[in-house]
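#random but structural
TW: two for the price of one
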Amino acid sequence: MENNEKIVKFIKENKLDLTAGAGSDLNSACVILAGYALHLGIVDELTLNKYVEESLGGGTPYTYDEEIHKVFEFAKNNNYGGWWAFAEAKKMYKF
C-alpha cells in the first residue's frame, strides 16, 4: 500500500476531523496526523497535504492548512514519528 493510501485510510479509520474549526480538536488531529506521516517517512508538509486533499475529496480547509503548518515542523523536530513504532500506538490507533 502506498503512503497516500495509508494516509487516506488512517484518517478515515481513526475518524480524524480535519474540517473542524480551529481549536484543540483540530490541533490534536493535526498532531496525530503529522506524527503518523513522519512515521511513514513523509517529511514535508506539501506531500502530506496532497494526501489529505485526496482524503477530503479535493482541497483543504484554511484552518487545517494553518494548523498543520504550525505543528508539522514541531512534530518533525521532536521525533513525533518515532512514537508510532511502539505497541501503545497500535493499541490507540488503527494503522
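TW: number two ↓
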Amino acid sequence: MSLLSGIKLVDITDGLAGPIATQVMADYGAEIVRVDRIGATRSASDLVRLRGRRSIAVDVTAAEGRNLVERLVATADVLLVETGLDAKLRFDVPYATLSQANPRLVYCRITGHGDEGPLVDASSHDHLIAARYGVYNQVGFREGPTYLTANVPSLGAGLLAVQGIGSALYVRERTGRGQEVSTSLLAGALAFQPGIMTASNPLGAPPPSALNRMPMGGQPFYSLYECADGEWLHFGCLSPAFQDNAIDAVNLRTEMSKLGFGTPQQADNVMRIIETIKDRMKTRTFAEWASTFEKADVPYARSQWTEEIMDDPQVAHEGIIQRFDDPTGGSMEQMGAVATLDGEEWQHVSPSPLIGQDTDSIASELGYTAEQIEALRRDGVIA
C-alpha cells in the first residue's frame, strides 16, 4: 500500500505549480482526477507532471459543467485549484459552499501574489514573479539580474502546496474536518531564498557582491573549471584542509603563495587566483584530474547534463527511474518518486492521460446515465 493510497484529489489547475504538487501526490499513491479544459493540449512537460491520473474534460463555466465538478468534489478528499496566467480561478466556488456538501474536504488554492494587496489581480506569470521577488538576483553571469529557465516560484509553490495539504489531512485525522489551505507563487519564490535578510540584519552581513554572482562561482576552490577535453569540473573544497589538498594536487603551491591565497591579500587577487587555476585545469582532461583528485582526497564532481543523469550509476542505484509507454510520447524514461519511507514501496504510476480520456467513466461513477453523458457532450459541456 502506498503512502497516500485512498486519498482522492481533484486537480483544477492551469499553470505549473499545481501539476508539480499533484505529480508528487500521484507518486505517493493518491488518486488524482484532473479537470482539463475542453480542447486543451499537452506540453512535453505535461508528459511528466501529469502522469498517474485520470482526465475529465469539462467546461466549468457552463452551469451543467460546474454542477458536475461540484458533484466530483463532493466525493474527494482534496481539491486543488490554481490561479491562471489571467489571474482568474477557473473554478471559483468558495470553500464555504463546497464544505457544506463535504465537511472533510481539504481545499488548497495556489495564487500568484496572495489573496489581498495591490497585486492581488496582477498576472501570475512565473518569470514576472521571479523577477519581482528576487530570484533573478541570486546568481548571474554578469552584474545585475539573470534570467533563469527553472520555474522557481512554481516549484516552490507546488512543494508548499504538498506540505499544506499533508498538514491539513493530518489535522483532519484528529478533528474529522477539512480546511482551506493557500499558498502562492510569491511564497514559492521566497522559499528558495532561505538566507534572505534586510540590509539592517543583526549579523551585519553585506549585500551580495558581484563576485558572489560570478557564473562559475566566486570561491577559487569551490567553483567550476573547464578541463582540456571540454568537460567541466566543480571543486568542493570549502575547508582549509581540502583547499591545501587541491593546491598540491594541481601543483600550484608557489603561485597561490605569491597571490596571497588564504591570507587577507586573497581578496585583492581573487580574480588572478581564479584565472591561474583556470589555466592549470585546462592542461589535463577530466579523467586525468579525477584520477589525481581521488588519490589526493580532493572533493570534486563532473558537471553533467540533465540527459546524462538518467544513466548515472547512483541514480540507477536509488531506483527512481520509471519507464513509460506514453500514448503521446511513446517509450520514455522519467524520474520517479524522490522520497522514500521505510516499509513503503512506490507504485509504478500510469503515463499522462489524453485530454478527457476518462470523461465517460468518471461521469458514470458520479451517477450520470449514458443518455445524460451524451447530452452533455452534445451541448459542449464535456468532451
